[in-house]
Amino acid sequence: MAHPTQLGFQDAASPVMEELLHFHDHALMIVFLISTLVLYIIIAMVSTKLTNKYILDSQEIEIVWTILPAVILVLIALPSLRILYLMDEINDPHLTIKAMGHQWYWSYEYTDYEDLGFDSYMIPTQDLMAGQFRLLETDHRMVVPMESPIRVLVSAEDVLHSWAVPSLGVKMDAVPGRLNQTAFIASRPGVFYGQCSEICGANHSFMPIVVEAVPLEHFESWSSLMLEDA
């Protein structure tokens, strides 16, 4: 999860997020190179009294500074489009979960099971246990098996919400009357935190998302216990 003074993204916990991190570094290096070149040109133009006639009127240099930005845009656009299509790929999900946004909590329904669903509320500050995070912990976590494709169907009961977990590279709007879908694969066990990312009213800041990725055997044990309690 994020921590104070952090400048970059959270550590990736899914293949898509790893791709996004690589693309971010790729685009950032291009931005650094362009910024350095522009800064050098500005300093050179300001600090010298000489005038280069080839810069003032040169067809060749105009061709270069027209073609070069186009090439740079292609170098950014191609990997960007590749990741965009990767994020939309949903191949044979092992588990489907429906996440419904409410004012101001989330409810989860495991559609592959007959009666497995629960509401997920934020734990108030005064009820937190030692080591738990304020405004991020919930009374029921969304438990998923690791290294398995998970499909999440996202909708809302009342107003616009957005189901987002940065570590997993997932963000999907929850729109009343519309069913959106996204997918992820948790590449390692862990607890991953997110929050509603669409301003949805007075308690928008108080409907966190907690995804817990566990080995398949532990997930089966957890689902059995939840079905027994239901």
Describe this structure in words.
With 230 residues, the chain is α+β, with helices and mostly antiparallel strands. The protein folds into two domains: 74 residues, Helix Hairpins, CATH 1.10.287; 135 residues, Cupredoxins -  blue copper proteins (Immunoglobulin-like). Helix content is 35%, strand content 26%. It contains four helices and ten strands, in the order αααββββββββββα. The strands form three sheets. The protein has a five-stranded mixed sheet with strand order 3-2-1-5-8, with no helix packed on it. The protein has a three-stranded mixed sheet with strand order 4-10-9. The radius of gyration is 24 Å and the shape is elongated. The relative contact order is 0.16. The model has no long low-confidence stretch (mean pLDDT 92).
Briefly characterize the structure.
The protein is α+β, with helices and mostly antiparallel strands and 230 residues long. The protein is built from 4 helices and 10 strands; from the N terminus they run H-H-H-E-E-E-E-E-E-E-E-E-E-H. It has helices at residues 15-47, 53-56, 59-88, 216-229; strands spanning 95-102, 105-110, 117-120, 142-145, 149-156, 161-165, 170-174, 180-185, 190-195, 208-214.
Secondary-structure blueprint of this entry?
Layout: H1 15-47, H2 53-56, H3 59-88, E1 95-102, E2 105-110, E3 117-120, E4 142-145, E5 149-156, E6 161-165, E7 170-174, E8 180-185, E9 190-195, E10 208-214, H4 216-229
Parallel strand pairs: 1-5, 4-10
Antiparallel strand pairs: 1-2, 2-3, 5-8, 6-7, 9-10
Keywords: Copper, Electron transport, Magnesium, Membrane, Metal-binding, Mitochondrion, Mitochondrion inner membrane, Respiratory chain, Translocase, Transmembrane, Transmembrane helix, Transport
Transmembrane segments: 27-51, 63-85
Domain Cytochrome oxidase subunit II copper A binding: 92-225
